[in-house]
């Protein structure tokens, strides 16, 4: 699935709830999911890691929709095929 199709799906499924909730509360949901992802990684639970990554991605889509940001466009602008810091592929940054 392309990022734009993913973002459209998230809009169709959840925009009505996201708009009602607002950006700050939606961000808190994302933070909660990141915490759940961290816990799944700490416990080394591959199936749960997969699920939590999907949840995080969905909440990022929700935030992008709330703020009118095209994730695919934003990603390609920030990451144009090279590292945004060292401008190399692969990255040669030390950290």
TrEMBL record:
Gene Ontology molecular-function annotations: hydrolase activity
Residues annotated as signal peptide: none
Organism: Methanosarcina acetivorans
Top-level taxonomic group: Archaea
NTP pyrophosphohydrolase MazG-like domain location: 24-86
Entries under CDD domains matching the protein: NTP-PPase_SsMazG
Keyword Transmembrane included in the entry's annotation: no
InterPro entries per the UniProt record, alphabetical: MazG-like_dom
Annotated keywords: Hydrolase
Protein name listed in UniProt: Nucleotide pyrophosphohydrolase
């Amino acid at each position: 699935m392309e990022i734009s199709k993913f973002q459209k799906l998230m809009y169709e499924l959840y925009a009505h709830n996201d708009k009602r909730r607002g950006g700050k509360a939606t961000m808190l949901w994302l933070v909660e999911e990141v915490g759940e992802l961290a816990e799944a990684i700490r416990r080394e639970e591959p199936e749960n890691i997969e699920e939590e990554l999907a949840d995080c991605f969905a909440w990022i889509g929700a935030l992008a929709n709330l703020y009118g940001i095209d994730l695919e466009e934003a990603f390609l602008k920030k990451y144009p095929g090279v590292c945004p810091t060292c401008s190399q592929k692969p990255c040669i940054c030390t950290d």
